[in-house]
Amino acid sequence: MAKIFCVANQKGGVGKTTTTVNLAAGLAQIGQRVLVIDLDPQGNATMGSGIDKRKLELTVYDVLLESASIAEAKARGEKAGYDVLGANRELAGAEVELVELERREKRLKTAIAEAAKDYDFVLIDCPPSLSMLTLNGLCSAHGVVVPMQCEYFALEGLTDLVNTIKQVHANLNPDLQIIGLLRVMFDPRITLQSQVSEQLKGHFGDKVFDTVIPRNVRLAEAPSYGLPGVVFDPASKGAQAFVDFAREMVERIKTM
Ligand code: ADP
Ligand code: MG
Description:
Elements: E1 3-7, H1 16-29, E2 34-38, H2 44-47, H3 60-64, H4 70-73, E3 75-77, E4 82-85, H5 91-99, H6 107-115, E5 121-125, H7 132-140, E6 143-148, H8 154-171, E7 177-186, H9 191-204, E8 208-214, H10 217-221, H11 229-232, H12 237-254
Parallel strand pairs: 1-5, 1-6, 2-4, 2-5, 6-7, 7-8
Antiparallel strand pairs: 3-4
Helix pairs in contact: 1-12, 6-7
The chain binds adenosine-5'-diphosphate and magnesium ion.
């Protein structure tokens, strides 16, 4: 049965999508069967996996409204090496439409339960908000991976997310836990980043992943080629860090 993880942080531009697609590609390279679910109407994880969001006939939107199953709506990211349940702008409407519906926060969970036997990992790329879409992600998952930059306000920004995760854990999904915090876009030459990195370890202990993802331009260039960095330039420091991270995840779930 698949292990299901949300990649979440309510801030935009912190590296959620980069983490989702590169962890997925890294896991695929080490032989894992992976499904990426794009829960962001921007559709960046879809495009960054080599799937044209404008050409999709079925997306996660149809799955949330229960007019399609994941098996029907998924696409294959051939070069990326994993399946994708894509998203596009249509998904922005789901936020409003779901409010009216029953089991509104559990629709994704129900759909994933049907598909889970086909995968080792399901990775959900969340939008930069604590919205109904993110709530659907959190209700579906065994755990949350939180990418963060080691900047001055990083710890403060975490409080809202940690509180939301606690509430979901208490009321909707007793399985949910923070799997770990992933330090991304890291530049060791910046003293402040090293200091915040140490603070994080002090605060969260072994909830901080050992792997650190460096700032690496190849990771930023890859999406314009419709590829995860891990596939686009496997020799780059960023790609290698994500393959290391994939191995660390495989190890970590053994203890879950
Ligand atoms: P989010 O999904 O949280 O909004 P993204 O993954 O889209 O964040 O990342 C924001 C921007 O930072 C993108 O332009 C992305 O290419 C870039 N980026 C992400 N991680 C790295 C990294 N490790 N090194 C360099 N650029 C990165
Ligand atoms: Mg994103």
